[in-house]
């Protein structure tokens, strides 16, 4: 197999994840998966840019949906329904955060994330939500930047949270300058040969992949990327 050795971490991650055997996964979709945006045109457009509000659960989830859709071709040979896509770990983990109330305002000084009235709100005070920002905004923008999303890098921008705006980045160039290492890693993920490896050799690597099996991958990604934040 022609592994690109500049991506050892990713390869380890994939092997690690492939060890995580999963049982039945057909209905482990994150909450509100069907209702969330599934293509760029489902988002608001302003001045030729798609505007994504990452502080609303369906809009953040929708980014994963687009990401999975655009990377599906790498896994299509082995799973027509795209259930073998290694990126599934990200939305599933986020769905768990939503379901368990981890995205709500932990200080309870606002009703952000409180059920039932404001349950879609993602609070900037939630540690989980902030961490997930780097596992949603970054992979998404890096994918846009790598050209696999089919839109130009300047055509997408995120809305800032109500406070702590300096802690986040909002577009491809902004994220590159604020978090160069994390963006570089994700760019490598899309550009280095790992996805091609799946396309050609997926049988060996992704044999045991599935939605729940990615729990270990997400753990790995956490550890891998935390060191760059
Ligand atoms: C997995 O789920 C599908 C649909 O829900 C079902 O048809 C199938 O029998 C299940 N497989 C196992 C091994 O439980
Ligand atoms: C993307 O940006 C270009 C200019 O860079 C603009 O011409 C185009 O209309 C934009 N596309 C969308 C879908 O907004
Ligand atoms: C990706 O999205 C397009 C447009 O919504 C859809 O036609 C296509 O079937 C999707 N592909 C996958 C693999 O989900
Ligand atoms: C990207 O965001 C930064 C702030 O984070 C802003 O200064 C810059 O103008 C934005 N660039 C584009 C192309 O929108």
UniProtKB/TrEMBL annotation:
Signal peptide: 1-22
Organism superkingdom: Eukaryota
Swiss-Prot/TrEMBL keywords: Membrane, Signal, Transmembrane, Transmembrane helix
One Pfam family per UniProt: Leg1
Entry-linked InterPro entries: Leg1 (IPR008499)
CC per GO annotation: extracellular space
Transmembrane segments: 209-228
The name this protein goes by in its record: Protein LEG1 homolog
Organism: Suricata suricatta
């Amino acid at each position: 197999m022609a592994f690109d050795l500049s991506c050892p971490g990713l390869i380890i991650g994939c092997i690690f994840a492939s060890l995580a055997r999963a049982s039945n996964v057909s209905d482990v979709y994150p909450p509100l998966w069907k209702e969330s945006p599934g293509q760029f045109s489902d988002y608001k457009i302003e001045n030729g840019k798609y505007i994504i509000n990452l502080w609303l659960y369906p809009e953040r989830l929708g980014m994963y949906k687009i990401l999975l859709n655009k990377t599906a071709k790498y896994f299509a040979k082995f799973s027509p329904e795209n259930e073998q896509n290694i990126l599934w770990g990200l939305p599933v983990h986020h769905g768990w955060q939503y379901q368990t109330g981890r995205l709500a305002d932990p200080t309870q000084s606002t009703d952000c994330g409180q059920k039932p009235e404001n349950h879609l709100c993602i609070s900037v005070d939630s540690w989980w939500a902030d961490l997930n920002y780097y596992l949603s905004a970054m992979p998404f923008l890096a994918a846009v930047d790598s050209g696999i999303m089919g839109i130009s890098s300047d055509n997408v921008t995120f809305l800032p949270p109500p406070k702590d705006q300096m802690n986040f980045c909002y577009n491809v160039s902004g994220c590159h300058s604020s978090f160069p290492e994390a963006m570089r890693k994700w760019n490598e993920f899309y550009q280095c040969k790992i996805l091609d490896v799946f396309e050609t050799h997926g049988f060996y690597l992704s044999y045991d992949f599935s939605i729940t099996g990615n729990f270990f991958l997400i753990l790995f990604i956490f550890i891998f990327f935390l060191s760059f934040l």
